[in-house]
């Protein structure tokens, strides 16, 4: 454990990368997932099928395969993210980071879509019919009536999906960004005698992060509860 | 009845096809410089050791398990179609096993990646580790290490048309190395941004398709990759670290240290060490270095 205290700056930078991955991919996946969910319940058959195909394909592909595709296969076919080059203090947002964020977001979006769709199914059909009856178009029905109710019902599954995303970021540690998991490996390689202590510290920080996430989810659930 | 027979025949034919597909040749050895011959392995008959020592136990059993790396061309490498790994680490391991009266074909090769070398030794899953295992004080608190049998330094591999002339040009730039390796640490110490990869082959890909400007690890390994991709990659700069590559053994058997040192010293003296170097890491324009000086064993 001593090694971790002596290298606190490295620990902070590692978890900084983990959180950056999480925040960017969480926002992107929520946006994309909601869009795909709307496509899947919408009136246009082509979009419905496209949404279903996307979920079927991405949800059944292991995350590592998705990430490997964007990280290694992408550049071979000209799909590079070399236009991304940002410096945020000691954090670098580069092409590798971008390709992994895209992979994480696309993967998580499929699960977000299904969580939201389960919420939409929880909204009584009469709500949508009433909205249509007063002349709202599909966009209005979704944004004004159905989604606000659906999101309430989807908070618990959405929280699970996002917690999974937070832990899934560790796969990036072997693929080019020295985030928490990658840093843990180099710590244990440096000083195998402190293996248990190092593992304990990293596991503990992850537990704290997940607890914080579930706390937020809990609050949202309470606030949005239908009286 | 006839239907059943046809089906049986079809299955048999399919099996035969599948088996012939598996029987493809393992191909040429992945390493081996032109003209160099594999060093001879001296297998001692009925070696004598003090009763109760680990050496006596291994010699009695007639078999040994050695941990090596499978992804480092020239040092420890095993291709998908190979039966046994090849490389300098592997040749040295054969020499040591020979001193225990164990022929190369009786050695069990276990893959040890950087992360699991200490646990494997502690659990007794391997008897020895020769896996580009740099000697460090921290590691010596957990496992036994002796040697070194090779002293190398880290260099930089870049694209052939790159302007980079060494690690100094890469400050603040991404440099790829295997995750959890000493190479990655050294890159960071030199001020570059460490970009971990699963293995060095992945780094080579990254350099080739411009994902990162450079990769870095032991010069010997880089030369192997540069030779594989002639005209596309080059090795630049001076060595900026010193790695002393040694043999790992369990702390429960400290008597192994003297034995390993004697085995290494005899391979230095009878030139099998130099032959192994030429066979695995040598090549045109590469000089065989002086033999390193072994560390003393602490009693």
From TrEMBL, chain A:
Domain ABC transmembrane type-1: 15-217
Membrane topology, from the record: Multi-pass membrane protein
InterPro entries: AA_ABC_transptr_permease_3TM, ArtM/GltK/GlnP/TcyL/YhdX-like, MetI-like, MetI-like_sf
Residue ranges that the Swiss-Prot or TrEMBL entry lists as coiled coil: none
Family to which this protein belongs: Belongs to the binding-protein-dependent transport system permease family. HisMQ subfamily.
PANTHER family linked: AMINO-ACID ABC TRANSPORTER PERMEASE PROTEIN YHDX-RELATED (PTHR30614:SF37), MEMBRANE COMPONENT OF AMINO ACID ABC TRANSPORTER (PTHR30614)
Cross-referenced SUPFAM superfamilies: MetI-like
GO BP, sorted A to Z: amino acid transport
MF (Gene Ontology): transmembrane transporter activity
Protein name: Amino acid ABC transporter membrane protein 1 (PAAT family)
Transmembrane intervals: 15-39, 51-73, 196-217
Pfam family, one: BPD_transp_1
Keywords recorded for this protein, A-Z: Amino-acid transport, Cell membrane, Membrane, Transmembrane, Transmembrane helix, Transport
Compartments it resides in: Cell membrane
GO cellular component terms attached to this protein's record: ATP-binding cassette (ABC) transporter complex
TrEMBL record, chain B:
A Pfam match: SBP_bac_3
Origin superkingdom: Bacteria
PANTHER family, alphabetized: ABC TRANSPORTER GLUTAMINE-BINDING PROTEIN GLNH, AMINO ACID ABC TRANSPORTER PERMEASE
UniProt key word Transport: yes
Signal peptide span: 1-26
Keyword line: Signal, Transport
PROSITE patterns on file: PROKAR_LIPOPROTEIN (PS51257)
Homology family: Belongs to the bacterial solute-binding protein 3 family.
InterPro entries: Bact_solute-bind_prot3, Solute-binding_3/MltF_N
Name listed for the protein in its UniProt record: Amino acid ABC transporter substrate-binding protein (PAAT family)
Any single Gene Ontology cellular-component annotation: outer membrane-bounded periplasmic space
Natural source organism: Nocardioides aurantiacus
């Amino acid at each position: 454990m001593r090694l971790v205290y002596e290298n606190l700056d490295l620990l902070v930078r590692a978890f900084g990368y983990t959180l950056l991955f999480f925040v960017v991919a969480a926002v992107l996946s929520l946006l994309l997932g909601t869009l795909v969910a709307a496509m899947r319940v919408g009136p246009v058959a082509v979009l419905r099928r496209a949404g279903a195909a996307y979920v079927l394909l991405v949800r059944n592909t292991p995350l590592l395969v998705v990430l490997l595709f964007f990280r290694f296969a992408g550049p071979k076919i000209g799909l590079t993210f070399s236009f991304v080059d940002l410096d945020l203090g000691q954090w670098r947002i580069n092409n590798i980071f971008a390709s992994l964020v895209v992979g994480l977001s696309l993967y998580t979006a499929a699960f977000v879509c299904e969580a939201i769709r389960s919420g939409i199914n929880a909204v009584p059909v009469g709500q949508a019919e009433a909205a249509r009856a007063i002349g709202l178009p599909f966009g209005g029905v979704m944004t004004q009536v159905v989604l606000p109710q659906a999101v309430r019902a989807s908070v618990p599954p959405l929280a699970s999906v996002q917690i999974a995303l937070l832990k899934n970021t560790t796969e990036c540690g072997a693929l080019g960004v020295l985030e928490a998991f990658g840093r843990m490996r180099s710590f244990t390689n440096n000083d195998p005698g402190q293996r248990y202590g190092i593992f304990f510290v990293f596991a503990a920080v992850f537990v704290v992060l997940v607890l914080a996430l579930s706390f937020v989810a809990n609050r949202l659930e309470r606030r949005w509860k239908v009286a | 009845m006839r239907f059943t027979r046809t089906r049986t025949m079809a299955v048999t034919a399919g099996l035969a096809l599948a088996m012939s597909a598996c029987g493809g040749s393992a191909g040429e050895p992945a390493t081996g410089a032109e003209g160099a011959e594999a060093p001879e392995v001296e297998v001692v008959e009925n070696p004598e050791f003090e009763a109760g020592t680990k050496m006596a136990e291994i010699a009695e059993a007639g078999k040994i398990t050695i941990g090596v790396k499978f992804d480092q061309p020239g040092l420890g490498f095993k291709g998908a179609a190979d039966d046994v790994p090849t490389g300098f680490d592997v040749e040295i391991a054969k020499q040591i096993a020979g001193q225990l009266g164990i022929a190369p074909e009786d050695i069990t090769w276990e893959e040890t990646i950087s992360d699991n070398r200490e646990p494997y030794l502690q659990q007794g899953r391997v008897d020895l580790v020769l896996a580009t295992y740099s000697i460090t004080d921290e590691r010596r608190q957990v496992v036994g290490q002796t040697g070194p049998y090779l002293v190398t330094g880290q260099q930089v591999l870049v694209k052939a048309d790159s302007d980079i002339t060494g690690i100094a040009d890469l400050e603040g730039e991404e440099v790829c190395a295997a995750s959890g390796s000493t190479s990655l640490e050294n890159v960071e110490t030199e001020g570059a941004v460490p970009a971990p990869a699963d293995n060095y082959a992945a780094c080579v890909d990254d350099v080739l398709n411009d994902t990162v400007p450079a990769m870095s690890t032991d010069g010997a390994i880089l030369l192997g990759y540069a030779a594989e991709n002639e005209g596309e990659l080059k090795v630049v700069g001076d060595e900026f670290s010193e790695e002393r590559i040694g043999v790992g053994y369990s702390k429960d058997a400290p008597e192994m240290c003297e034995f390993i040192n004697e085995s290494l010293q005899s391979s230095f003296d009878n030139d099998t060490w130099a032959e192994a170097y030429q066979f695995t890491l040598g090549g045109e324009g590469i000089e065989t270095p002086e033999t390193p000086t072994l560390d003393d064993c602490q009693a």
